[in-house]
């Protein structure tokens, strides 16, 4: 056996250099890996609003329902740390409103089971934080909207969440002649003192509903409020107002008409949120954003956020747990948007995937 002294100094030096290079190369990926950081406020005096995208694929399969439970449980656990003051859900709460015979392929839960699942998931927030849930096209009719009959009011009645009741100011009649939260106005004062009015609108709202909403936001007591519209279908992935969709309902206004008849003529509508759109495993196809100006020249920030076909397509896991966190800074103008998945965040194995940071997923905007 040769001793180290038997090798020439130049050979030893070469071997050492090779070892150093190899060790450095092997450790580079680990050193370059970003450390996971859980959601936190950029400013401790901020408050946040969470956007939950269409839940329908979470609830149509029994195996997916725990993911929605995880999302609302995460919101409940972070109310204090993130100063969560409001939660919005973009609609399509269920896949089918009144189906009794699931085929086991496109879903394995009856409509009753789906409604119970989504209602139970939101029950984690009852009495803890106000939330507003839009009614989407799948929340009406039998399999999809052919008429405006819905079980929405049975599972999301006015008295379900005391926090909602405290903010509720008005409710319009739905298509069945019943006042429900499908079309409702909620008054909210932010921790920074900004008075806000959240208006929830049914899918493809009827002319009577748009006229009702327009009168509410223009009322003397609300004319200085910052009005926020929540409705299911509004923008497409090209950041355009949706002009028309081929649903067999007698009357309905889609994105462009909602903008022209309600949003643009109003002096105080400054934000619009919606969902509805998507394509299999394509995050960009689920989102959109645009800025216009209303009749008073104020910026109207309009955002669509969905995730239902991410995580395996339309029959996948429902959306990989993605939600959006909107941080309203103390300057009363700046809103920071971040896209986060509590599903990926629960395990060290997947935490590096818990944030989406493309420019359409992490950005900021201002409100006047």
UniProtKB/TrEMBL annotation:
Pfam families: Metallophos (PF00149). InterPro entries: Calcineurin-like_PHP, Metallo-depent_PP-like, STPP_CPPED1. It comes from the Bacteria. SUPFAM superfamilies: Metallo-dependent phosphatases. Gene3D superfamilies: 3.60.21.10. Residues 73-277 form the Calcineurin-like phosphoesterase domain. This is Metallophosphoesterase. It comes from Pricia mediterranea.
């Amino acid at each position: 056996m040769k001793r180290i002294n038997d090798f020439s100094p130049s050979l030893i030096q070469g071997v050492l250099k090779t070892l150093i290079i190899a060790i450095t190369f092997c450790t580079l990926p680990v050193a370059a890996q970003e450390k996971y950081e859980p959601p936190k406020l950029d400013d401790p005096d901020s408050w946040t609003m969470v956007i939950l995208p269409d839940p329908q694929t979470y609830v149509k399969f029994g195996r997916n329902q725990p993911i929605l439970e995880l999302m609302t449980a995460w919101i409940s656990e972070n109310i204090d740390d993130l100063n969560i003051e409001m939660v919005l859900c973009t609609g399509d709460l269920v896949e089918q409103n009144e189906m009794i015979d699931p085929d086991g392929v496109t879903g394995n839960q009856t409509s009753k089971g789906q409604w119970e699942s989504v209602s139970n998931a939101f029950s984690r927030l009852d009495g803890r934080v106000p939330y507003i849930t839009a009614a989407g096209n799948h929340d009406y009719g039998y399999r999809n909207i052919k008429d405006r009959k819905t079980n929405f009011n049975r599972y999301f009645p006015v008295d379900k969440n005391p926090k909602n009741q405290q903010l509720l100011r008005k409710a319009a009649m739905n298509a069945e002649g019943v006042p429900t939260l499908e079309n409702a106005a909620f008054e909210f004062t932010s921790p920074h003192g900004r008075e806000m009015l959240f208006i929830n609108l049914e899918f493809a709202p009827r002319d009577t509903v748009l006229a009702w909403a327009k009168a509410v936001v223009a009322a003397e007591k609300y004319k200085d409020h910052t009005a926020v519209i929540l409705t299911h279908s509004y923008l497409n992935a090209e950041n355009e107002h949706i002009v028309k969709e081929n649903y067999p309902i007698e009357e309905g206004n889609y994105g462009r008409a909602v903008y022209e008849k309600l949003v643009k003529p109003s002096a105080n509508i400054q934000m619009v949120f919606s969902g509805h759109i998507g394509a299999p495993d394509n995050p960009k196809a689920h989102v959109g954003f645009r800025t216009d100006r209303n009749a008073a020249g104020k910026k109207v920030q309009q955002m669509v956020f969905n995730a239902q076909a991410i995580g395996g397509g339309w029959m996948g896991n429902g959306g990989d747990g993605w939600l959006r966190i909107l941080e309203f800074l103390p300057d009363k103008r700046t809103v920071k948007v971040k896209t986060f998945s509590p599903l990926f965040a629960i395990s060290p194995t997947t935490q590096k995937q818990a944030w989406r940071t493309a420019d359409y997923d992490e950005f900021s905007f201002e409100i006047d």
